[in-house]
Amino acid sequence: MTRASLDKQPAEVAAMFDAVAAKYDLTNDVLALGLNRRWRTEVARAVAARPGERVLDLAAGTGTSSLPFVENGAYTVPCDFSQGMLHEGHRRNPWLPFVAGDATRLPFRDGSFDAVTISFGLRNVRDTDAALREMLRVTRPGGRLVICEFSHPVRAAFRTLYSEYLMRALPPVARRVSSAPDAYVYLAESIRAWPDQPALAARLQEAGWRQVAWRDLTGGIVALHRGRRP
């Protein structure tokens, strides 16, 4: 299985990411035209990890997204449900405390983390609302959540151009650089089906998060949503 269906069966999604693990970071650099590095920088600024804090990085994949928090002095736990991603991450950074976990049933105690973050992974979780509630549970009172996810460009003309890129240009490019290009057809389809910025903010509030806000990056291709645990 190299391509998941949009009903997001966990085994299918995990198998898809297992298949792309070896070249995942390289493929992302190519498909995002290098913008993913800027997005990671913005996530690190939003999380604002401090020395001595505990940060949970969900959908961490190979652990690339976790490194900025470690560099800021935070104890960082990269968590993912793809064994292929975890194995590749452990091969690259064996000192990181990788944990296998499902975002809807996290293997951590209540209030374990000062901050929880997830980048480009919430879209792949079968039950978004259950995942948002689990993130709330494992965050300490007053702790923070940062979600970085593909979203919807705010300008109509740009939105049309972006949609054309997703469905027409992305799959051929993925066939050249990815070990499992069919997975990137799923990527394009899942982005188009994902809620827009206000809709996701509403779901955070319904899950119990407070001080919910978002900021668009690259014209709304990506949005950073934030919240606090009351």
TrEMBL record:
One example GO MF annotation: demethylmenaquinone methyltransferase activity
What is this enzyme's EC? Answer: 2.1.1.163
Q: Does the keyword Transmembrane helix apply?
A: no
The catalysed reaction is: a 2-demethylmenaquinol + S-adenosyl-L-methionine = a menaquinol + S-adenosyl-L-homocysteine + H(+)
Membrane-spanning residues where? Answer: none
Give UniProt keywords alphabetically.
Answer: Menaquinone biosynthesis, Methyltransferase, S-adenosyl-L-methionine, Transferase
User: Could you provide one GO biological process annotation from this protein's UniProt record?
Assistant: methylation
- What pathway does the UniProt record associate with this protein? Quinol/quinone metabolism; menaquinone biosynthesis; menaquinol from 1,4-dihydroxy-2-naphthoate: step 2/2
Looking up InterPro entries in the UniProt record yields: SAM-dependent_MTases_sf, UbiE/COQ5_MeTrFase, UbiE/COQ5_MeTrFase_CS
Q: What class of enzyme is it?
A: transferase
Question: Which positions in this protein are listed as binding S-adenosyl-L-methionine?
Answer: 62, 80, 102-103, 119
Question: What family is it from?
Answer: Belongs to the class I-like SAM-binding methyltransferase superfamily. MenG/UbiE family.
Described by its record, this protein's role is as follows: Methyltransferase required for the conversion of demethylmenaquinol (DMKH2) to menaquinol (MKH2).
PANTHER family attached here?
A: 2-METHOXY-6-POLYPRENYL-1,4-BENZOQUINOL METHYLASE, MITOCHONDRIAL (PTHR43591:SF24), METHYLTRANSFERASE (PTHR43591)
State what protein this is by name: Demethylmenaquinone methyltransferase
Q: Which organism is it from?
A: Streptomyces calidiresistens
